[in-house]
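Exercise 7.
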Amino acid sequence: MMQRLISGQKVALTDVSYRLQIDISSWQWGVIVLKAGHSAILSSDDLGLTRDGNQLMVDFQSLDSSIERIVIFIHTNASDELNTEALSTTLYPGSSDQAQFNILLEQQSRSERALNLLEMYQHKGKWKVSCVCQGFVEGLDRLLGLYKLNRPVSHSLNKPAPQRTKPAVNNGKGSIEMSWDMAEESQHSPQKLYVGSQFNVISDFRIGCFYQLRNGQVGLAHSIEKSESGSFIGVPYIEASRELDKHFEQLKINLQYQHKLHRYLIFAFMVEGYGYWKAHNIKINVQVDGVEPTILTPDSLMVKPVHAVAMLEFDQGNTELTPLNEYFENLPSMDQAYGWGLQWRQTQ
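Solution. The predicted structure, written as C-alpha cells, is:
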C-alpha cells in the first residue's frame, strides 16, 4: 500500500533501488549530491543516479560509497509563483509499478519560488528518505546558497514526459536468452563453479556478463544470486533473470541508456552439468537492436565450466556482436584472458 508522506516525515528505504517520478507542469528540478569530506555538487548523472525526463533512478548498490545525502529540489522563474496544484512526487521500489511513497503538496498558490522537496540520506549505514518541503521566497539562488553552490543550467520539464512507468527498450528487443535440454549423466562431471557465498550447487546452467560502461566502470552481473543480477533501471543497465521451472535464463538490456554503454562480455556457465557442452543442446538467442538476430550454440566437447559466448559493443549509435566460443576453468581466468580488470575474492 502506498504511504503518503507529510512535511518533516522520515522513513526507511528497504529496497536496493528506487525510481522517483516528479509530476509537474512548467517547473524545473535538480539534484544536489553531498559526499563525505567534499563540497556539495549539482549532479545530472552520476554512478547510481540517472535522470530521465521527469524521473530519477537511484541505485544504492552502485552509488559512490562517499555519498551521504541526495537532495531533490524544484524551482521556477523569478517572476512566477509556484503553484502546487499539479505537483505530485512518487517513489517506486526497483522496477516495480507499485508506488511505495507519495508526496502531494497542498493545492494552492505559494509565494516560494524554490522548494527543497525531499532528501535521501544515510543513517547508520541505512538509507532513508525525508519529506522536507522547505520553501524559499528568494528563489533558487537562496536554496543553492545554503550548499555554497551557484545557479545551474536548468533542466526544463515543459514538454510532456513519455507515458510509461519504467524505462523501455528502444523499439525492439534488447535481450540474450539461453535455453537447453537435459543431457544424460555421464561418468565424468565437470568442475563445480561457485559464484557467491550463498550459492547452493545444483545441476544447471547460468548466464551472466562482464560489463564496462562508457565512464570506465566495470563489473559483473549473473543469474545465480538476486543481489548480483545487475539492474535494468540503473547501473549496469543489464539484468539477469531465470525461470525456476524451466531451462531458461535471460539477460535483459536497457537500450534506452545505450549512450552510457560500452561493452558486455556475455558468458554461460555450467554450474554442475553432466558431460560436455554439446550434449546439452544449448541455444543462446541474441535479440538486440542494431545487430542481426543470432542464435549461438556451444558445441565443444570440452567440460570446462565457463563459456565465453560473445562480445556486445556499443559505439556512437552503432552496435556490434562478435561471437567468441572460448572456454575457461573459471571466471577469473576469463577475466585475465580478456583483460577486464575485475577484483576477485581469494578463496581457500
